[in-house]
Each structure stands twice: as structure tokens, then as C-alpha cells.
């Protein structure tokens, strides 16, 4: 094989597996290795940051096999960084893991192996470093969708029984009236559910676009010096402030209004749950799928609570007056 080997790493367990196998291959064929690590952040990788630590770990793996290596810290798309280094070094082989090659993970986590294999000017070896089973995520997605659908179906059935057979033609009026006639707790929980689902969808879409284009309309990465301000920061602030004010307030309308920013704040925070759990920027790594699973599970829970509260409220309106009349 002519030319050096290029391998990318983000510090994840699957990337370490790719680095170890690359080291073994390079030791056998006597080829030097160029190790690439890239960050999506707008700032240049810091000298003492996670990129440096990731590269140092990879270098230690190479030296343990007696392989000569060089490191490359880049900013931007990992796939682009790997391709650029391979071209600069006239690489004979690029080694990547199969992380992100399956359906939803290709959208949620990225598609580095696909992009590299399609655009590389040299040979590409794709290693099986990650299992692609998505059963847990699919189950949670099914629960979330079915729970939200159950809330909508229950409301349509209720309106149909009340005589709103033309709900399709008067959907806006019917929705407004149904919302208005609900209890304060029902409206607040519905606000949280709607704000949470809407914000989660928009946030995931915007981060995906920003990662590729640098901006999503007016929304961009927020960077202050060497620090990237993740969206869980405003999320925690929104949830804490709105939730705290809602707890101490006796104004029902104010509490209902505050349930919207509370839902937004919770969605922004849980979208980066994996980062908070790992204390590392794993948003687009395999570990980042935990954020998706937590968001889907929370959606299902909120929808189930909304439906349960509606059913209990209707039962209360029917049973309590009857008992009072019997007791009289």
C-alpha cells in the first residue's frame, strides 16, 4: 500500500476501536498514520481542550504498536476534515468506523462514513465499530407518537359526541373552545406538552442545519471566547425562572402562561441530556442518542399525563355532583 493511513477520532468508544484497529493494521504494513480530530464548534480547537486529549489518547495507542503518527486538530465537519488531511498527505487509505450509517442515526448523529466513502480519492476501509440496532429508540418514538395521537383522538371523539360533527370545517373554533373550556391544570399541561414537542423538533432540526451551514436563519452557535454556550444554558434558566415563579404565584392565568416557557426550557435542557450526563460534548456521537431517547420518553409521559388528567377531570364533573345530590 502506498501512502500513509488517515483515521478520524472524536474520543468516543467506537472511535477508539477504529484507532486501535488502525494501529494494528499500520504496524503490519509499516505505514505512518495521520490522526484527525475535528469539532463542530466555531472556535479553533483549544490547546488544552477535549480535542487535544482525544488526540493524545490516540497517539498513545499508536506508540504502543510502534507506529509513527502525526495529529491534526481541525474545526468543522469531521468528514471534511478527514478528506482534507487525506488529500494533503496523499493518503493511501482512510479508516473510519460505521457509526451513523443506519437510517435515523444518519440524521441524528451524522453520516461521516457515507460522506468519506463517496468523496475520498483513495481507498476507504469502513470498520464495524458500532452496533446499529435502534429498537429502543424506535419503541420510544412509537410510544411518543401514539400518546400524542391518543390525546388528539380523545378530544375529537369528545367534540363529536357533543355534536361538533363539522369539527373538520370549524377546526380552529373547535380547538379554541375546547382549550377555553378545560381546567387551568389541563391548559397548563397542554401548554407544556405543545411547547416541549415543538421546541424539541425545532432545536434538533436547527442544530443539524447549523452543523452543516453555520446558521439556521438568525440562529447561530453562540461562542464567548473559548467557551461554546450550549442551548441547555438558556433552557435551564427558562425552566428554573418560569417554574419558580409559577410555584409561588396564585394567579392561574400567569401560571398557564408560564407553562409555555417552562416547556421550552425543559426541551432545550433534555436535548443535551447526554452532554450533561457524560460531562462531555457528545451531542453528535453514539452517546448522544440518549438525548433523543429521553426526549421521546418525556413526550410520551407528558401526553399520557395530559390524557389522564382530561379523563379524571371529566369523571370528577360527572361523579362529584351526583354524590352531592344523593347525600342531600
Question: If you had to describe this structure to a student in words, what would you say it looks like?
Answer:
The structure is a single chain. By secondary structure, this protein is α/β, with parallel strands linked by helices. The chain folds into 2 domains: 5-127, HUPs (Rossmann fold, 3-Layer(aba) Sandwich), CATH 3.40.50.620; 135-327, no CATH class. 62% of the residues lie in helices and 10% in strands. The protein is built from 12 helices and 7 strands. The strands form 2 sheets. It has a 5-stranded parallel β-sheet, with helices on both faces. The longest helix has 39 residues, at 289-327. The radius of gyration is 26 Å and the shape is elongated. Mean pLDDT is 80; it is low at 101-107 and 323-328.
Fold topology:
Elements: E1 5-8, H1 13-29, E2 33-39, H2 50-64, E3 69-75, H3 78-88, E4 93-97, H4 103-108, H5 112-119, E5 123-127, H6 135-161, H7 171-180, H8 184-213, E6 222-224, E7 227-229, H9 232-248, H10 252-270, H11 273-278, H12 289-327
Parallel strand pairs: 1-2, 1-4, 2-3, 4-5
Antiparallel strand pairs: 6-7
Helix pairs in contact: 3-5, 6-12, 8-10, 8-12, 9-10
The amount of helix comes to: 55-70%
Query: Given the helix and strand composition, which structural class is it?
Result: alpha/beta
| Series of secondary-structure elements, N-terminal to C-terminal | EHEHEHEHHEHHHEEHHHH
Largest sheet: 5 strands, parallel
Q: Please report which band the strand proportion falls in: under 5%, 5-15%, 15-25%, 25-35%, 35-45% or over 45%.
A: 5-15%
Query: How widely separated are the two ends?
Result: 95 Å
The total domain count is 2
Gross geometry: elongated
Average residue pLDDT: 80
The count of helical stretches stands at 12
Strand order of the largest sheet: 3-2-1-4-5
Q: C-alpha Rg, in Å?
A: 26 Å
> What is the count of β-strands?
7
**Unreliable runs, pLDDT <50, ≥5 residues?**
101-107, 323-328
Amino acid at each position: 500500500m502506498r501512502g500513509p493511513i488517515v483515521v478520524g477520532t472524536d474520543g468516543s468508544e467506537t472511535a477508539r476501536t477504529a484507532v486501535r484497529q488502525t494501529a494494528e493494521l499500520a504496524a503490519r504494513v509499516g505505514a505512518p498514520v495521520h490522526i484527525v480530530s475535528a469539532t463542530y464548534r466555531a472556535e479553533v480547537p483549544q490547546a488544552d481542550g477535549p480535542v487535544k486529549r482525544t488526540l493524545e489518547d490516540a497517539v498513545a495507542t499508536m506508540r504502543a504498536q510502534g507506529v509513527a503518527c502525526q495529529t491534526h486538530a481541525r474545526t468543522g465537519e469531521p468528514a471534511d476534515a478527514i478528506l482534507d488531511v487525506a488529500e494533503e498527505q496523499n493518503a493511501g487509505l482512510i479508516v473510519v468506523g460505521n457509526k451513523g450509517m443506519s437510517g435515523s442515526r444518519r440524521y441524528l448523529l451524522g453520516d461521516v462514513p457515507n460522506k468519506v466513502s463517496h468523496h475520498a480519492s483513495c481507498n476507504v476501509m469502513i470498520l464495524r465499530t458500532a452496533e446499529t440496532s435502534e429498537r429502543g429508540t424506535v419503541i420510544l418514538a412509537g410510544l411518543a407518537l401514539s400518546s400524542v395521537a391518543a390525546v388528539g383522538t380523545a378530544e375529537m371523539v369528545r367534540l363529536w359526541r357533543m355534536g361538533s360533527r363539522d369539527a373538520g370545517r370549524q377546526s380552529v373554533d373547535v380547538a379554541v373552545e375546547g382549550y377555553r373550556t378545560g381546567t387551568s391544570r389541563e391548559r397548563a399541561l397542554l401548554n407544556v406538552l405543545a411547547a416541549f414537542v415543538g421546541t424539541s423538533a425545532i432545536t434538533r432540526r436547527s442544530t443539524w442545519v447549523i452543523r452543516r451551514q453555520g446558521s439556521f436563519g438568525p440562529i447561530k452557535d453562540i461562542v464567548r471566547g473559548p467557551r461554546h454556550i450550549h442551548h441547555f444554558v438558556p433552557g435551564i434558566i427558562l425552566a428554573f425562572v418560569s417554574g419558580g415563579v409559577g410555584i409561588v404565584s396564585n394567579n392561574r392565568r400567569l401560571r398557564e402562561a408560564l407553562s409555555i416557557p417552562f416547556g421550552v426550557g425543559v426541551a432545550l435542557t433534555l436535548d443535551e441530556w447526554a452532554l450533561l450526563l457524560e460531562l462531555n460534548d457528545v451531542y453528535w456521537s453514539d452517546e448522544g442518542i440518549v438525548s433523543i431517547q429521553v426526549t421521546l420518553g418525556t413526550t410520551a409521559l407528558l401526553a399520557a399525563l395530559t390524557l389522564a388528567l382530561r379523563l379524571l377531570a371529566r369523571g370528577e364533573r360527572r361523579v362529584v355532583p351526583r354524590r352531592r345530590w344523593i347525600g342531600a
